[in-house]
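Predict structure. Input: Aminoglycoside phosphotransferase domain-containing protein, 289 residues.
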Amino acid sequence: MLEAVRDAAAPHPHDLRLLRLGENALFASPAQGLVYRVARSDSVRDKVEKELATARWLLAQGFPGLPPRDEFPQPLSADGRLVTFWEYVPPADPQPALADLAALLRDLHALPAPDFPLPTLDPFPVMRDRLRTAGAEPDTAVSEKDLAFLATACDTHEAAFRDLVVSDPDVGLVHGDAHRGNLLRDGDRVLLIDYEAVALGPRSWDLLPTATAVDRFGLAASEYDEFCSLYGADVTRRHGYRLLRTVRELGMTTWLMQNVPHSAAAAEEFAVRMTSLREGDHVARWHAL
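Output follows.
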């Protein structure tokens, strides 16, 4: 992926560093004031175009989002990947809090539907692509047993999830991956970033990461109560919570699975998550990587 950034950069940045590796690779060049977002392949142009359109639309609504750097032609195809360019926001204290996330989600969910088409929330194609990719890798680091379990879990829950999305009365614009890792402090503002999973779907989906964090990541119940008070709802009391949470946790696990070949820590954490999913253990502690 680094080659894609070098191909896209003019001039080549001398201070490039990896910020995050997941569905995309994010590289920062503070000297240029740029973040290079590199997709895994150039076959996801529609999704990348949606990310850019969403960012531009949010800014036009006055919502605190991350500006794309549109002085560069984008998305740019380089080394078989798609590169987009975004404003670099340097780390700043205090770190964004759950209160910031609650307020941003409350405001996001109050916005009208955008004036461009958005997909219906559907995490299953991405999960299945991850499983296919892992299974096709020579000497894959993920066992066939684990791949089969995850594929079966997708089969088991997909139809019920789609029915819930269609029938849920509280459907609208959702961020799709709403957690504190997708917040940035920019002076006295907090920005909501990363629009890859933006869709139309049950607004409950955006509340799941915080609710799940109580059981999985040790979030204090008092902090969760404050989040619910600020947002105005508690997703654990909403219809379909358990199903939505199961699907969300499958997504979290298949996301982590992508890094198993490259990280001993990811491999260890993946094993922990697989055990809890197999055993139906909803309170086993997970670790954020």
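The radius of gyration is 19 Å.
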